[in-house]
Amino acid sequence: MHLCYFFNLREDLDEDEYEETKKETLEQLKEFKDTLDKSIISRNTVMTIRVTDEANKKLNMLVDAGIFKSRSESAAYLIEEGIKHQENLFNKISEKLETIEKLKDELKDIASEEMTDEK
Question: Cα–Cα–Cα angle for 79, 83, 87, nearest 5°?
Answer without folding.
Answer: 175
